[in-house]
Amino acid sequence: MDTLEASLSRKGERTRQTLLDAAEKLFAEKGFYGVTVRAIAREADADPALVAYYFGGKRELFDAVLLRRAERLNQIRLDRLEQCERDAGPDGPSVEDIIEAFTEPLLDRSENGGPGWKSYFALIGQVTNSPEWGEAMMSKYFDPIVRRFMESIRRALPDAPEEELFWSYHFLSGALVLTFAETGRIDALSGGMCKSTDLSAVHKRLPLFVAAGFRRLAKDRSDSGSIENSKAAE
Amino acid sequence: MDTLEASLSRKGERTRQTLLDAAEKLFAEKGFYGVTVRAIAREADADPALVAYYFGGKRELFDAVLLRRAERLNQIRLDRLEQCERDAGPDGPSVEDIIEAFTEPLLDRSENGGPGWKSYFALIGQVTNSPEWGEAMMSKYFDPIVRRFMESIRRALPDAPEEELFWSYHFLSGALVLTFAETGRIDALSGGMCKSTDLSAVHKRLPLFVAAGFRRLAKDRSDSGSIENSKAAE
DNA sequence: GTCTATAGCTTGATAGAC
DNA sequence: GTCTATCAAGCTATAGAC
After folding, report:
1. For FRET with B81, which of A43, A151, B28, B57 sits at 20 to 30 Å CA-CA?
2. What residue segments make up the domains of chain A, in order of their start?
3. Angle, nearest 10°, between helix axes B162-181 and B95-112?
């Protein structure tokens, strides 16, 4: 439709997107309070007043940055999970398959999607660990896909107590979002052997690591018990 | 010694500690840029100028907050790791034991050490995931104890490729620092079944979960190979 | 050791010209 | 749709009184 195409390519929409790109980049580097409206406008080569014009204020711009890619991402991830279940045999997908379906769309876009996606996930990494924003933002933008993921896992591990699945997801989430931050910490620690930016290394390992954890908690704690009676299982 | 005791109880030292307490609390809530020197002074019931007097500036105060407990903590954790190795049989401690020795002093203090320790770990949770501070701060304050931990693990998993141990540590670190943030996300997700503040629940589960992950990567990737050939091991 | 006073900027937001 | 001009408020840091 002519009007839609015209509306998307209007000067105003381009400016709005440029501001979002600039905000995304800077918020990812220094967090919400570490960035000023003026710095964002400068990065976008736009006027500071336009932040108020398009978004209402700094806080609303922050929300808009998080929302923009969340919508696209949730659709992609939902498709990926459904695909994963369709591809599986009669027993359904393995825990490894489900975790890979859950994390691969994120790792792939962070590594190959360009600087916008990279910044976006770095921002998610910070927001997730923030007492101020963590719960509200993550629940707001990602609850449905996480619940969908949990259902799949529940089917793959039918004997696992619910708490164990939630705690396992918590550990998965922590491992994943630290990965997004790409701080260079593992580079320093490993003397350069491993690189924070090497997300395909994470893609190869995270599903195995996490699936083993899920299975361990599902099995060793299925009739509760202390840490003692399930230690050193091999 | 009289002079030492006198120096520790001098009015100035008390004020300094009160400023550190206030800064620790506020930095943990809103990060470095989210807090002003004035807000810290107000919280400490002290004059804003004293921040410059005792620390030099806001940035140096931030460093001082991180340093204060890191020193004590590193000694405690070193002792705990050595104890763990002394208590072990001739084969050395299990991976589970080592991970527990590494994480328990942190989880225990966050849960039972009072509000200062709680804030400190929440701050660590944010700093770790920050592209701006993560690498520099964590390496600066925690490198020796992490290297010591890696050595213990290496002895417990002698056939594991080095990269696998580093990536496993990375996942452990992510799971741990998200726990410190106590954002309430797992409360919302689980409908109240699990609680972010329940660190003893994490203490019971994290060593099992993470040890299973370490073992999985150590074994399934010991002769490299793709994700495919090691999936669904049971 | 503590505080007052203030210098010198920067902040987020907005009213109104174009 | 964009920008200039400007506001009141808040910022860090410091010089110097007590």
Report:
1. B28
2. 1-56, 67-233
3. 20
How distant, in Å, are the alpha carbons of B61, B113, B216 from that of B124? 15, 15, 28
A15 strand D contact, CB < 7 Å: yes
Architecture (CATH level 2) of domain A1-56: Orthogonal Bundle (1.10)
CA-to-C1' distance for B56 and C6, Å? 19
Cβ neighbours of A226 in B, within 8 Å: 204
Judge whether B67 and B141 are in contact, CB under 8 Å.
Answer: yes
- CA-nearest of B34, B136, B191, B91 to A139 is B191
* Separation in Å, CA of A6 to nearest CA in chain B: 38
Nucleotides of C under 7 A from a protein CB: 1-5, 10-16
Per-residue pLDDT tens digits of chain B, which is 234 residues long: 445 445 556 788 899 999 999 999 999 999 999 999 999 999 999 999 999 999 999 999 999 999 999 999 999 999 999 999 999 989 999 999 999 999 999 999 999 999 999 999 999 999 999 999 999 999 999 999 999 999 999 999 999 999 999 999 999 999 999 999 999 999 999 999 999 999 999 999 999 999 999 999 999 888 654 444 444 444
Does the A67-233 domain belong in CATH 3.40.30.10?
no
pTM reported for the whole predicted model: 0.94
Check whether residue B38 has its CB closer than 7 Å to nucleic acid strand C: no
